[in-house]
Amino acid sequence: MTTLKTNSSKSKRIYAGALAAAIAAAAPMHVQANDINEWLDGRVELNFLALQNYQSIQAKDGAFRPADEEQSDGFGRLRLNLQFKFHITEHITADVDIAEEPNDFGNNGDRDFAFHQDFAGIEFDLFGLTGSEQEDADLVLRVGNIGAAPFQFKGFQDGADNQGNALIGNGMIDYATAENGIQLSYNKSYEDGPITGYSVAGHMTTSSFGEAFQEDRGYNFRLQGTLEFAGGFKAGLNMFQANQGDQLRFVDGIASMAGVTTTNYRFGDGENYNFSASGSSERDTHIGALPGLDQSILQLNLAYQPTSKTSIIFMIGESTDDYTFADTEGNAVAGITYFGDENGVADATGTTFDSASVIRADSSVEYWILEASQYLSDKFFVAARYAEAENTSDLISQPDNSAERLQVGAGYWINDKTLLKFEYVDQDEGANSGGQIGRGFDGFTSELSVKF
After folding, report:
1. % residues pLDDT > 90 (the chain)
2. Are 411 and 421 a contacting pair, CB within 8 Å?
3. Per DSSP, what are the bridge partners of residue 21?
4. CA 437, CA 207: separation in Å to the nearest integer?
5. Average pLDDT rounded to a whole number, residues 309-328
6. Whose CA is closest to 31, among 422, 408, 411, 448?
7. Would you give the end-to-end CA distance of the chain in angstroms?
8. pTM (two decimals)
9. Phi, then psi, of 266 in degrees rounded to 5
10. What are the boundaries of each domain within the chain?
11. What digits encode the pLDDT tens for the residues 404-444?
């Protein structure tokens, strides 16, 4: 039996180069052996992943889009990933994830059934290239797509790449994405002592998965540190800072977001919860309280993982921005999705709008998450996650400003390569929480996945 490596697709984006080898090897799930298909004397590796989901989920009464309150149960679109890794030389590797992922940005809603480059990059082993290899340390430079997320130690799901996530949904405040840039990471491990390893990583990215060269477009910066202790305790601290606000052009105190590049991690990554009143590529199960311009994130992660069968993780953080979403009249609104009328004024009896404007005002979200998973046998595990987020923005009314999500799930390994998962999810959204469903949602969902 081996421990699953959570370092593919956007899981790569989160963990690649950020954790020491010893830390990455101690992922929170204990699963069957996972063979890697190799060609050309091991210089090329390939994995094929596929996933089919089934859900029975309804939005709660009073949702922004009434059609979401009465949905049919049914099957989602099949998700596919092809993950390649190329050993260019002994000290240079390249990777690419080709995916058909309907709930990701860039897939053109329900119309585009095409494979896309979902994540790719080149990594340089700097110690190896300079002839100064170390058995217990490495220094890696990555160029290309860089993973960006403030959470650590837990699995993550991206398209068909779901077997490192004990649950099905990622989380309503994950703030995860991949962007273009550079990352430098240093990893160190120890054989003896109270500290068994540590890592430090920093990156600079353009706030886009494509290309963005418009005037005053800034950069996103991340600094991440991790400590692993003997006995299974781990701690990590993540700091993010973006400076995208200079792109804005204000007229009468209001600025349009049209053509403005924002931080891609403002809503988190795609989840396999789908709603009939929005396109499959929408991210409307996340908390959309922050515009993602001059956004900052500070998050502390603590984990106790004494064995590969047991994992308890606690995460706490705050994300802030110097700007707040607004309606067409310049009134602050709690999130990107809000009620309004023909004058654009927030009104719970009016029509649903997605904000395309911001004003200068501090916005912020404070949040915490508790997650646990446990294998009851070699094939069967149970897991749960509770998350709470509070919209503490200056111009937003503080009563009824929190959102909570409970996820309870179980998984069964049919064989070494096939995983069946079930989950019950219940999300409650206060009127001022920034939740994009409006009142929340609940129901059951399941996934059957293969990885070969």
Report:
1. 64
2. yes
3. none
4. 26
5. 96
6. 411
7. 16
8. 0.88
9. -70, -30
10. 2-52+79-400
11. 999 999 999 999 999 999 999 999 999 999 999 999 999 99
CA atoms within 13 A on the CB side of 81: 30
Q: Which residue has the tokens 């995860």?
A: 176
> 90 exposed, middle or buried (CB, 10 Å; 0-12, 13-18, 19+)?
exposed
**Distance separating alpha carbons of residues 128 and 89, to the nearest angstrom:** 10
From the list 13, 107, 148, 29, the residue with the least C-alpha distance to 410 is 29
Q: Give me the count of residues in the chain.
A: 452
Tokens of 398: 């503080």
Instruction: Assign 64 to helix, strand or coil.
Output: coil
pLDDT in tens, 18-52: 333 333 333 344 445 456 677 777 799 999 999 99
Cα distances (Å, whole numbers) of residue 180 to 100, 202, 245, 441 = 20, 14, 19, 34
Amino acid identity of residue 287, one-letter, is: I
Return the structure tokens found at 437. Answer: 């469903």
Q: Which of 446, 449, 443, 444 is nearest to 63 (CA)?
A: 443
CB atoms within 10 A of CB 117: 13
User: Phi/psi at 295 (nearest 5 deg)?
Assistant: -90, 140
Instruction: Using pLDDT thresholds of 50, 70 and 90, give the confidence band for residue 100.
Output: confident
Q: Give the CA distances from residue 100 to residues 81, 190, 296, in Å, rounded to whole numbers and listed in that order.
A: 6, 40, 31
Question: Which residues are within 8 A (CB) of 198 and not within 5 positions of it... i.e. 6 or more apart?
Answer: 20, 187, 188, 225, 226, 227, 228
CA-CA distance, 389 to 392, in Å (whole number)? Answer: 9
In CATH, the architecture of 2-52+79-400 is Beta Barrel (2.40)
How far is the C-alpha of 343 from the C-alpha of 346, rounded, in Å?
Answer: 9
CA distance 83 to 88: 16
